[in-house]
Amino acid sequence: MGLGMISRVFGLLTATLILCLACAPRPSGAPAGRGNVITSDQMASVNAQSAYEAVQRLRPDWLSTRGPSAMLTSAPDVASVYLGGNYMGPVEALHRIRSDDLQELRYYEPGEASARFGMGHERGVIDVIMKGADRIR
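and the corresponding structure tokens:
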């Protein structure tokens, strides 16, 4: 095997490793600021009034814009919000939900969001679970 071939194989292996690490699921014991769940206890600990404030303080990356999802649009995309399986709107909908009424907020990455909620969730979904709500999913 020549030096050029070794270099190409090494490059391919490096790219594969980077892709695998980027797609790996987050550990369930992820520290505050990371992870895909915010519990009612966590919301209470930061004294958040709305679901938006809770997310802003505990998982601000859920609110970040990531630029347009298509070249033909200039509007930045953000995560979608669902409550009880119903679409509520973009993340701004979280302003209308009191944190005292919440059991949990759960973020779904785009791939899993599309599988659970249908296509069109390029920035993921924040699923709102109210206290006393049945969890069917």
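(Above: one complete record from the training split.) The longest strand covers residues 102-108.
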